[in-house]
Amino acid sequence: MVDGLTLGIDFGTSAVKVVALRGDGTVAAHASSGYETFKPAPDRAEQEPEDWWRALSTAAASVMAEIDPASVIAAGLSGQLNGIVLIDADGAALGRSLIWLDQRCGDEVAELERSHAETLAAKVSSPTSPIAVLPKLQWLARHEPARMHRARHVFQVKDYILWRLTGAVATDANEASATLMMNLASRQWDAALVALSGLATGHLSPIRASTEIVGRVTAEASAASGLPRGLGVVPGSGDTGALGVGCGAFAAGTAAVTLGTAGHIVASVPNQPPALVPGLWRMAHVTPDRELWLGLIPAGGLSIAWLRNLGTGFAGRPFGFDDLERLVQATEPGSGAAVFLPFLEGAGTPWNDPSRFAAVAGLNVTHGAGHLVRAVYEGVAFNIRACLESFEVAGVSLERVHLAEGGAQSPAWCQIIADVLDRDVRVVAERDTSATGAAILARAAVDATDLAVVVERSVRIARVHEPNPAVRDRIDLSWKRFQQEAGRTN
Question: Domain tally for the chain?
């Protein structure tokens, strides 16, 4: 193993996270810095690319102040999938980025499903969704043609940062496969699918290996970001591939559940023939011998943030996490028959319906605050169970469940998830798993060791939550209520 630290830089939905990782998987330093999401209309979600750059400079400066810069040997990138930045011939961003939460392209999705469903199923093997880049670009071509005409290049979030840091133009297969424009079998851009967007493949970044150093930090970028000049940078992966690595969902049989703003449930699967898998997204993993299958809960951790923000209207301040934890622990499993559908940003797996709304059902005058709070925690856990059942129906055998990120910091929520899944839940020690995964991918670029060995060495388990048999009957009854409510339309 090569001595030194690797950096992992992950651009999530609300913040950039930077970690400096030792070879044994322990974190030497970490920092984060947030940025704003603009919502000019209910179906829109935009971010300023310059805000990402400023946030990186802030977080990187904090990390570099805690370590010896000379000890850093490589950096890897990760980022929210399906956020796009249009760049003109002078290298300027053409307006804000449309991020993955942007839902304005519903008409374009419907047209793709009417006219190109078979082609997309055969080449992409994932459902058509407003989340994806292809229908977003179609919307821009229809509604903002001047902006599209001026575009010399279309970056995704982390690839824009790679370009700003090194001048290199590159992406990775995991990132590209989520766009609906990459052929999953060949792991190359598909010219016919790209043409549907109104662009050509030359507008998109070449697809390179996740563990290949494709550029080095320039003097200008070093001065602005605080990262060492000449530092080698790998494209890394979209956040799904990186979190799969950072959570240990690289070998077969392990499902990783992360509860950040969204909830992601991922598992590694050997490459499969082209086909849609109901409710799941198929995408390339970080090595060419396997795929990553994804179940999505758009408002995973966001459901808890929403719950906290209710406190502003009642108490003049957000509810604290400790307040919610006490209410959950003081309320019996089953939430007194109250059921929460966590569809605050639409329904993901297995329904794949962005038009669905969240709901609370089964309330009466006997319910208190604890019932509502626990119902929200249980509702997200039931959605996780629905995702895992989708994997099993598709023939993916899952032996282990790893849990990470923000939701994993709540012991009460971890126990609820173990009870709902009726299986052990292993909590990953490092919280920022996509950033950790990006650092592991950077390590693989400079270390002669196989990536599987690096992952095994680097992913550490902090604790294990076992299901409580005494609550199984109540949980099963609540699960049936959840299924009934989720089966209704709204």
Answer: 1
